[in-house]
Amino acid sequence: MEQAEGLNEPASSTSPIYDAGRIASGQPDYRFLRLIGLDAWQRLPVAVQRRFSKRLPAGTSVVYQGVVRETHLNFVGRCLAQAARLIGSPLPRDDRATGPAVVVVMQNQTTEAQNWVRTYTRPSGTTQTITSEKRFQGPTGLEEYVGAGIGMTLDVTEDNGALVFRSNRYFFEAGPVRFMLPRFLSPGQMTIIHRDEGGDQFCFELQLIHTWFGVLFHQIAHFSDA
Length: 226
Prior knowledge:
mainly beta; Lipocalin
């Protein structure tokens, strides 16, 4: 991974990773840049760089409002989503659900992790809220923790101008003890794609594919910058 020169120093206003008028507050947050490397980061649209380099001060959050366009679950995916309610319902559980959605991102000032809260409209008119914590640690440099001791390590890459997160290993932790789930027991590879669509709009695509059971679920949503 190529390291950006002077990443520990304030960026200049002419730097390709600094957008003086759009950074949320203070200096940029370089953690996602470090994960993918400078060359890959510079291939991302400026709007994506801006969203993933916002440094959030204490007591603030970023809100993205949008709409879910598609949600599809196969039979195994529906069973998995219902079973996952035991650990806080971290998966969409309504096939063909569409409607308004809101994503809120907050910074944990104690751990430096990012807290993500996603709220979706269900066909019944109620809502489903999915919470997770992005931790900048572990063997790949990034983990997503969904609760009840369950999480996954993530690989982060750039692909045709999109920022892509792919699950690497799933784990269970209890205090200082962590157990990595054998790959053959994995629920599948989770892929999350953030693709800019111009005009302060972006697409969020979520997919879980199992080796034996195919596409367990697939969701596409569109959001706007706050």
